[in-house]
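How a chain folds remains the central question behind the approach discussed here. In the encoding step, the backbone of a single protein was reduced to a row of integers, each denoting a local shape. We regard such an encoding as a compact summary of how the chain folds. The sequence in question and its structure tokens are set out directly beneath this paragraph:

___
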Amino acid sequence: MLIDFLPVFLQILLAVGFAGVALTMSLYLGKRGKAEGVKNEAYECGMLPVGDGAPRFSVKFYLVAMLFVIFDIEAVFSYVWAVVFTDLINEGHTQVLWSMLAFLGVLTLAYIYALKKGALSWKS
């Protein structure tokens, strides 16, 4: 049984060996660079970098963004369900209505929980 995996083990051994040889050769044969102050600075279209690279955002921004994505995906699911709802009812699938009502109930409870926790208020 173990002999069946011999080609896989040889491939892994070959890959690790090649990576090790390539890194070692690069270390011994490559040029050594000198660290200079000007060369280590960030280059931005020929302008000197001034200030921070990116503005800092509040954690509330990310929380609201995640909640938006979650509720947006739920709206997409609801839209697809609404498109096929009448076809499913005509075919006799009555559990479709109850499953969607349960889904929307859980979604409503999650929304109420987020409101009570203050996840959507910017002041706190």
The CA atoms of residues 36 and 42 lie 12 Å apart.
